[in-house]
Amino acid sequence: MPIALPVDDEANxxxxxNPLALLIGMLLDQQIPLERAFSxxxxxxxxxxxxxxxxxxxxxxxxxxxxxxxxxxxxHRFPKAMAARVQVLARIIVDDYDGDAAAVWTTxxxxxxxLTRVSALPGFGAAKARxxxxxxxxxxxxxxxxxxxASVPFSAEGSYISVADIVDEDSLGKxxxxxxxxxxxxxxxxVSDKASAVNDKAGS
Length: 204
Hints:
Helix content is 66%, strand content 0%. The protein has helices at 9-17, 19-28, 34-48, 54-59, 62-70, 79-97, 103-106, 111-119, 126-139, 147-150, 169-203.
């Protein structure tokens, strides 16, 4: 099953067949629109003139990699920090998986092991790691035993709560609507807590 995110065909093709590009896109998916994050690996390929290997990125001069990330339009709003994270990611792939990014999931014997491996990558917090496991299962058919349990709640069938569920503009809209509702709920709770604190202070 190919990746079908709301990015151009070239970017989706790269994400679908190049595991390192998919990991980089997921890593960059923070504090910027997901369209920008998942287009960035294809932009990186264009700037380098070829698809980089993990070994190449691991060995890249850090300053030169930052310069490439910083070219306008920058690959991320924090190009220096993210270039460094991508390089750390590449080094882990080289050191722990013999340079084969796909081995992160193809050699995992269970969903729990897969989640542990993804969680050890830079930029993959608890939620993002579960989302990535869900994305692998839902969109690429990577389904070791227990993958759904390892990636709850993002693995639920028929859900529209993360990038793992985005396959077209309609699903993108549903996921964005869900996230907007979460933000509104969180904001309402914060206002309520503030009002309660004011009332408590007034009553003391």
